[in-house]
Design brief:
heterodimer; A: T-fold; 3 domains; 13 strands; about 25% strand; B: 6-stranded antiparallel sheet; 7 helices; 7 strands; Ion_transpt_RnfG/RsxG (chain B); FMN-bd (chain B); transport (chain B); electron transfer activity (chain B); FMN-binding domain-containing protein (chain B)
Chain lengths: ~290, ~180
């Protein structure tokens, strides 16, 4: 039996820093090779679901999904299904079709003319036709930024789970999932001061994600904007609240943080319990609240 | 200018914080070379960027060139490995970038990431406030907590750094 080794790697992917930590009874060189393959899974998800990459499934759909049905990769189809399902459960509070407003505020790049950015489309206009075919009932732009990062983490962890490792952690800029390490500890950033960590936490589920309405500055520089848009008003949310969600999978944790930030509070318990998830809210006053209650 | 502003911003925190900057080391230079140029022999090439070359790179990449001397290695097949440091908004990051003989980026690895956290995590008072059921009894105080969850930190600074190096290859390295 070879000695147990641990390695830690970090690559810039998904617009953030993706860190992979592996522990296993094999050489460091082997662990590095396996980490490399896990990064490759994340790169595949990035290629399919990037809003920035003009060849991605997402960009193809945004260009002509309203003209004719398009075939997408099964992974993209799965993520769209999950997103629409969560939109339904949150009565539209979670909505991946708010991209035009993100483009206008400078948080996403502009591929097309301003005049073609139709904002009327909503999540109900996404038609999942089966057999990987997707169409839009009217012109709209989807952005999977609020859910694909978690999915990418899941894909990397699924691959790593086949290798007989004693432990693995994939952390994509705060969206993370652990493998085989019960009682792992993490730290959550302070919503009042994002370059400090405020709260230590135990991983109540294998996956954790945190979203907050701070941190992102609009390209215009005039006004602080956040990447979380309120779907009803179309305006960026400005509160100093952060939401962390512990879930079985990272796609759920990632999406549920946005759902909790955006949905009316009366829906939280139900949406979280349906996925056996736990939310930890940190407020600007320094309060820490857990849901479901 | 930017560096000075950063030091100014962090100086008070550095004085107060017993841990100061937290540096996360991922790879040594040699490990990065083995990952990015596997099985290839590489030799260091002294590359000094002239004023004109720096101007040209800045114009082509729209990214400021801060250093005049490149820390660059050339493989026998014409690929390059460049070690560089990128300043993010709140952190300094050492990176290694591999560029093949066609000027394509073949890989980017983070070697060291420094940021202003770490001192809180080492404080016993901070560690006592753990959330969750079974935590306190099993807490190992000596074990560092390196995984942090929070709103996503942008890696835009790296993207800009890689863009600058790709144009540096185009303008300078491909002719060497």
């Amino acid at each position: 039996m070879p000695a147990t080794n641990t390695i830690q790697r970090c690559q810039p992917l998904l617009g953030t820093f993706v860190e992979i930590t592996l522990t296993g009874a094999r050489s460091e060189a082997k662990l590095h090779e396996q980490a490399g393959k896990a990064f490759e899974m994340i790169r595949s998800v990035q290629r399919m679901m990037s809003f920035h990459d003009t060849d991605s499934d997402v960009s193809r759909l945004n260009r002509c999904g309203h003209v004719a049905p398009l075939q997408v990769h099964p992974w993209t189809y799965h993520v769209l299904e999950q997103a629409v399902q969560l939109s339904r459960e949150t009565e539209g509070a979670f909505d991946i079709t708010v991209a035009p407003r993100l483009v206008r505020s400078g948080l996403l790049p502009r591929h097309t003319q301003v005049s073609s950015l139709v904002e009327a489309g909503r999540w109900e206009d996404i038609a999942l036709l089966g057999g990987r075919a997707v169409s839009f009932r009217q012109p709209l732009q989807v952005d999977l930024g609020g859910i694909a990062k978690g999915f990418a983490v899941d894909k990397a962890v699924e691959y790593l789970s086949t290798l007989g490792l004693s432990g693995a952690i994939v952390n994509a800029g705060g969206d993370m999932r652990v493998l085989g390490q019960a009682d792992s500890r993490v730290a959550i950033r302070d919503p009042r001061d994002p370059h400090r960590v405020a709260v230590p936490a135990v991983m109540l589920r294998p996956a954790l994600a945190t979203s907050a309405a701070y941190f992102v500055k609009a390209a215009s520089g005039l006004q602080k904007a956040s990447a979380i848009m309120h779907p009803r008003t179309g305006k960026p949310m400005k509160s100093n609240l952060s939401v962390s969600v512990f879930a079985k999978t990272c796609i759920e944790a990632d999406a549920l943080t946005k759902a909790v930030l955006l949905a009316p509070q009366k829906l939280w318990n139900q949406v979280l319990a349906a996925r056996d998830s736990v939310a930890l809210l940190l407020t600007k006053q320094g309060e820490q609240v857990m849901f479901p209650v | 200018m930017r560096r000075r502003a950063l030091i100014k911003k962090f100086a008070p925190a550095l004085l107060l914080a017993p841990g100061g900057v937290h540096a996360q080391v991922y790879l040594s230079r040699e490990q990065a070379r083995q990952i990015l140029l596997p099985g290839k022999t590489a030799t260091q090439v002294a590359v000094h960027l002239s004023k004109d070359e720096r101007k040209e790179i800045e114009k082509a990449s729209d990214v400021k060139v801060e250093t005049r001397d490149l820390d660059a290695w050339k493989g026998k097949d014409g690929s390059w490995l460049i070690f560089d440091t990128v300043m993010g908004r709140y952190e300094a990051i050492d990176i290694a970038v591999a560029i093949d003989s066609d000027g394509e980026t073949k890989g980017v690895e983070i070697l060291t990431y420094r940021e202003m956290y770490g001192y809180e995590v080492r404080s016993p008072k901070w560690r006592k406030q753990f959330h969750g059921k079974s935590a306190d009894s099993k807490l190992k105080v000596n074990k560092d907590i390196s995984n942090i969850s929070g709103a996503t930190i942008s890696s835009k600074g790296i993207t800009a750094g890689v863009k600058r190096l790709v144009h540096t290859w185009e303008i300078v390295l491909r002719k060497l």
